[in-house]
UniProtKB/TrEMBL annotation:
Residues 10-138 form the Pyridoxamine 5'-phosphate oxidase N-terminal domain. Transmembrane segments: none annotated. This is Pyridoxamine 5'-phosphate oxidase. Residues 181-201 are annotated as: Disordered.
Length: 201
């Protein structure tokens, strides 16, 4: 039923890149800590960097559990489901790292997301994941669901924020700088977006 892969290419890559939503799972090392599972959407916010490396954009929000868990231990699983066409589920198990706005790698990584205006979405990090295990399974029980369009709500909510007001928003949230379990989350104060990314469509 399931198959393992050495790399993300060919049919597997095509399947991943065609999906409109995927899910990320992380957890702290503490066995009593909170497991986090997050849906990720917005077309253009995910990219395959090479045969073993993927990345996605981490936008403004009221929590930063994924960032906190990755900073502590790096473990992450990404999952895609086929809601249209032949049944399929793909999981990439690996090690992730949040790359923040003031990192020298920021500009190069942003080149993989040409359709996303980071200023509109309050982009706070780029999550880079190196695959250690790649598997697919049947997905026979996943229902058929049709994609309509991306919701415009995230952009409309955060497009009005400046770097300063976005930092203020994060400072007020209980679980952005610190995770639910007390781990370091998003480093604050929030650095400004690099000048090359300060554009609006």
């Amino acid at each position: 039923m399931g198959e393992s892969y050495e790399r993300i290419d060919g049919r597997l890559r095509a399947f991943i890149e065609a999906q409109h939503i995927f899910f990320t799972a992380t957890a702290p090392l503490d066995g009593d800590g909170t497991v986090n599972l997050s849906p990720k959407g917005l077309n253009g916010s995910f990219a395959v960097l090479d045969e073993l490396t993927v990345a996605y954009l981490d936008f403004a929000g009221s929590n930063a559990e994924t960032i906190a868990h990755l900073r502590e231990n790096g473990r992450i699983t990404l999952m895609w489901c086929a809601f249209e066409g032949p049944p399929n589920i793909v999981r990439v198990h690996g090690r992730g790292e949040p790359v923040f706005r003031d990192d020298a790698r920021w500009a190069g990584l942003m080149g993989h997301f040409p359709d996303i205006d980071p200023a509109v979405h309050g982009l706070r990090a780029i999550i880079v994941v190196t695959a250690e295990k790649i598997r697919d399974t049947c997905g026979y029980a996943v229902p058929f669901m049709s994609y309509g369009q991306d919701r415009p709500l995230h952009a409309s909510r955060f497009a009005r924020e400046t770097d300063e007001s976005l930092d203020g928003y994060f400072q007020k949230k209980e679980h952005v700088a610190t995770s639910i379990d007390g781990l370091p989350g998003l480093p604050l104060p929030l650095p400004p977006l690099p000048s090359t990314a300060q554009h609006r469509s």
